[in-house]
């Protein structure tokens, strides 16, 4: 058996050890670049942005596209997604700019060197056809969670079109034009900048259009590693079974994609016949670059302490993380919430790219993650001590134990409906299938929303179904369910939810560490919080702020009396 993966893993680990300073510098530089775009886009009033994009659409794509731009962006604003849209636009623009910085020179190289073309062609094929999810792994390892790894993964995925089309455009420049330029004494660089690039510009702009579209296709994928924006809205809709929210986020992505596509297509379809136009574009580019540099170098919150709280799309984690953000901001902190899948969270925590995770289920559910990353983590405190995980069935199902599943395989269609592949409960369920001899069963990987949709459908028909389940969870309030007994204790007894941080965090920030250690919730308190959060659309922070006021005495008891911040 050939294990290529181990060599790739060894190479990445070697790079992390020997080039950590380089990756930190890249993280800081790209992060400032993205923040610059975000500050510019956030700082401009929404109506000015709409007007500017509408004018650009009118000039490059016609009146119909301009009208669509105005109506579409007003709809996005009306849905309350303007900030998320600007985050996505900043991610796309920064990714595209960086892809052009790298891709255009590579395209020029391939056009002038057949050997370079032969070398780069299979590499570009690999970059473009490799499943985009794969790029998230090294991105998180190198840069942690956030927009930077999202941009990194996006660049790799979206750069090939501009490389290919830049090379194609230059190769398509008529040879007689090239020869004529050389005969008049044009140097190599004069030939490139004054002849080849201007004539190849429409083709290159087509590559830019394709790069932008492919960048947008990475929006939801990048949201899995806390890149934010519209992708996070769609992801929340998927993982929390909020169909309307997911659909609205999808509409916003489509609107933005159509606007950018039509504008860039119009740019590619029209040649700049006057040098004056080119000078204007250069001037705008210089001004924008200077503005981005100025904004990115400005930090008004330099004196604030910063805390990065990572959380998965589970209600208890969403609730506790947003509540912690509200409280710490009251204490003068700058808090960044990082919404990501479980595996990237632990990778980011171990690398000190994320500070705290408030939803670690122990001792069974997340045991494998603790075994892998425990040496680089520290426990801050137990948040909740009465959690439970296991296999769950409707009350009308007549069996009561996991060991009865084998004899009723047909009634359950030989399926156990699970959630995300990386979730701890899925790994434990694999062990349960082996321990109880459930060889004929298939553990179905899905999401919590898909699992609950399958549960509802089966219960509406009175069919037998077995799912992975846990408490606290609102499903037990909405559906009449029961846990199957676990005589072999594969799932353990009661689980505890812990707050964990990277090792050394409590020394770096004793005040925040003590605050997280003090968080304690009862079943009633956590259930009420989760119920309120379940029906939230995009106002999780407002719900957390309201719950904090309603439980003022409890929350105040968590805040350290010491002012050592």
Structure characterization notes:
The protein has helices spanning about 5-20, 20-45, 45-60, 65-80, 80-110, 115-130, 135-145, 145-160, 160-170, 175-185, 190-215, 220-225, 230-240, 245-270, 275-295, 315-330, 340-350, 365-375, 425-435, 450-460, 475-480, 505-510, 510-520, 525-535, 540-550, 550-560; strands at about 305-310, 335-340, 355-360, 375-395, 415, 440-445, 465-470, 480-485, 495-500. It has about 575 residues and is an alpha/beta fold. The chain has three domains: about 5-295, MetI-like (MetI-like fold); about 305-385 and about 500-560, D-Maltodextrin-Binding Protein, domain 2 (3-Layer(aba) Sandwich), CATH 3.40.190; about 385-485, D-Maltodextrin-Binding Protein, domain 2, CATH 3.40.190. The strands form two sheets. Strands 1, 2, 3, 4, 7, 8 and 9 form a seven-stranded mixed sheet that branches. A two-stranded parallel ribbon has the order 5-6. The radius of gyration is 27 Å and the shape is globular.
